[in-house]
């Protein structure tokens, strides 16, 4: 909200220093997001009359204009064309410095000397109008040579751009901001001047107002204004509106806007002659009804939208013939709009149910200054005060305006202002700072709360009607205490760092995640962050046929599905770096991939919907570590090497590489293996290569191998499923070990790891078993290969005898034979 | 049956036979013109139609087209079949039994890798909070509206939901499943679990990825990371909150960086505050980054709203607490004076390689 300082000063005496006021606003939670200085730098700008306009040879965009600003003819080169001889425009003479440090100098264009600049409103920072020069004749009776600031009644001003929080509808007005400042600076608050209705007439005699939906409309006031003339507003109204960021339209509409900005009450003026029966009635819209709103859009009413909790309810204003005039509190219709010929105004000032306005406004995609205020909660007691102010403002341009007496004022359901009990110690118990009791009371009273102190020091606090955000009970107490703290100043509250006996800690899962991130970084991978939201085609590359988890309202179709894997993203990241000339890159990522609840037994069930009463199935979120190895010599074997490093550093007891065909989409079908915990059978992940087809689709590269390691951290973290090495230390024997090599010819179906595992368990004398060579050759029978192991034998208490070694060797050979392995 | 009709049947039969004899994609590419293309019998017979009368020509033309299309379809399915055969024979030739990889015989080229900036920043933040006595908790990225909104005192259709630009997930009733817009739902999970297990108090931080439907620019990404703090204990006050923020600020940003609170609105805390810290660029002197105020906004915080306690079943007279949350990416941005957040997701090794 734009708040001109001059407007705030109408209601409260404020310090001179803009910085001090800014500081106070910030500290009150009315955060200043920007400060604009207007009307400064215009001291030298004068009113000039256009006397001649000439074309310049060879130029079609600029013209030579002769003006008189009181000191005789002056030649100016000008690019605008919206003015005529005899009209008056602002002239910045040579030497003037316009806002934004824009110095005006004598210039020559196309051989013509320009002695200054004729200005648009935007160049003067008065408003955004940049259509052409600011032609003054429609605004004022200009006098040649007069200073523009005097001619327009401009005073330099400071405009704060305030961010008003959603729980502070009361502060969404100049008066509301002034009230907070008055409380902070402990100054009195002044009310704006208001009019009184004509006591000799009665509105009910000439107009009607009815509420048919008291739950949607808490209050309807209808006033009749006679002798109206629609003209332009006085300059102070225009200036205020422009500084607050609104466009002046006509005195009637402007008065409505001024009152809304000033007090926070939206009002709606109708042309009384265009409202059948001078009747305003509030009711629910009926299915099938429609309305053309002021923006020219046809709105279908009373149709439920897609939004959660949307009832389809619309609150409308109708006339005496039951014709819909407008969407209550949001926007009026075209039929009853104020026009130049309006002579009598029917003025509506009402209170509408915030949630009704919020739902309607969201459903129709229609937000207005009025709906923004009503949906947060306008003060239900404000309506007639706002009308009285409206009349006072309008009377400045229509002195003989008549406000028919005893305005119609009908009531529906309005929220009762909360009464909250704040115990004697509650403020200190909540804030941790003891505030003087009288300061607590004074702060609240300055904000319009009424406070009664009971005998035991408790406070009974009644919120003003302008504060619908103040609740009851424990929540209301918190609301009131926030108000106290706000006015007192958060910065003045004490601080204390709490301590407790429980130590801080990370879970095993979190430590595991950190560990794998560190291991793969140490191994030379760059940690990537690839998109969670992917395209349909990216999803289909790996998961064609399964159900995508879709976003209902994506920013772009390319980002509309939750990723089912990180492989595709990492391959794309690799491809982009290759394009930039970085050919040897290894990437890793730890993150979540998603499976549609339809496709997963591990879908999460949770509560949702209104009140959390609906049982919902949410996607499975599977945390994984995915590594794509993209050095030029990387392949599936590199991935196995990386895996062995990871497994070792994580202390996994017995997870083996178990080749399998068609492990998963995106994985090379014949160069990949599952990682299986031998004891539990749990699959920890996949090692191997990325499917060449995926690489080609994502990057266009043919024939490049990319190693792949894709680990399921959910499984890896489960120490029941994936056994760790024993924590018990084994001190190596001090006696020399015997080292023997055994090469077995085995069918390909025998896993090297299984044979190695059984060899290691064959005798207590076996210290370790290491595969050191695999030989395929023509000398072996087809489908066989030779596996060569180095086996260390030893005992903790002695050097093994030759006989013991020979015996162990026989045992090992026998174990091999059990696997169908023949010693080579 | 007239003569050209008969001829079409013969041409089709011969074309299909020729197609069946093709044994590779290369061969197919070579021969397709003579089977069904310009050099095929189809083309030849079509040229003879010029002599027919118009009606007959139309009819024969249609029949020929039909037959030709059938053969063209057969060519495509043959091509797909040959592609499959070729891929599987290539894959078969490529077969590698990974169980036979001799790790001891492989070399691993040593290059420096780099942990990601966000993950590293998150770990640093976690470490500070763990040292301050906090446990680290986590929650899911897809949430129901109950956890993301309603239990946090943001009822359905309430305008306050508009404070977050929400991505909705196409599951359940409209707008009931969301990508979490903040880490605050983890607060609700923590409190619900503590109530269910009779395990209050809670002193936890919850880092994680969140999403907002916000077009990415130099300062925002649609996906980002937050860290949430939650303390629920006996006699916790606003002073404890301010003190915790202050201690954290100095520990993480440095002893000369201060914090201050100013009133704000969050539906799930009351009183609520934004917290600002001394601008880390100018150290409070005033610069462009902090709009010459010397302060920059870091996050939001406040005392747990009694309505939230009510939603999770905690007695607000017996327990009190505070919560805070701020951006992890933003901390990284400030510490490294990162001018464009989009660099975080571009995965350019020249960017990633800068961070230890």
What does this structure look like?
The complex is a heterodimer of chains A (824) and B (356). Chain A is built from 20 helices and 42 strands. Chain A has 6 domains: 2-39 and 158-185, 2-Layer Sandwich (Phenylalanyl-tRNA Synthetase, Chain B, domain 1); 46-154, Nucleic acid-binding proteins (OB fold (Dihydrolipoamide Acetyltransferase, E2P), Beta Barrel), CATH 2.40.50.140; 203-411, Phenylalanyl-trna Synthetase, Chain B, domain 3 (Phenylalanyl-tRNA Synthetase, Chain B, domain 3, 3-Layer(bba) Sandwich), CATH 3.50.40; 419-488, Phenylalanyl-tRNA Synthetase, Chain B, domain 1; 508-716, Bira Bifunctional Protein, Domain 2 (BirA Bifunctional Protein, domain 2, 2-Layer Sandwich), CATH 3.30.930; 738-823, 2-Layer Sandwich (Alpha-Beta Plaits), CATH 3.30.70. Helices cover 25% and strands 27% of the residues of chain A. By secondary structure, chain B is of the alpha+beta class. Chain B has 2 domains: 3-100; 117-352, Bira Bifunctional Protein, Domain 2 (BirA Bifunctional Protein, domain 2), CATH 3.30.930. Chain B is 42% helix and 17% strand. Chain B contains 12 helices and 9 strands. Chain B has helices spanning 3-21, 25-35, 41-48, 54-94, 117-131, 145-148, 185-196, 238-253, 306-312, 328-336, 343-346, 349-352; strands spanning 135-136, 142-144, 177-179, 202-211, 223-233, 259-263, 269-278, 295-304, 320-327. In chain B, the strands form 2 sheets. A 7-stranded mixed β-sheet of chain B has the order 1-4-5-9-8-7-6. In chain B, strands 2-3 form a two-stranded antiparallel sheet. Chain B is elongated. Chain B starts with a helix and ends with a helix. The mean pLDDT of chain B is 91. At the A-B interface, helix 7, helix 10, helix 12, helix 13 and strand 28 of A face helix 4, helix 5, strand 1, strand 2 and helix 6 of B.
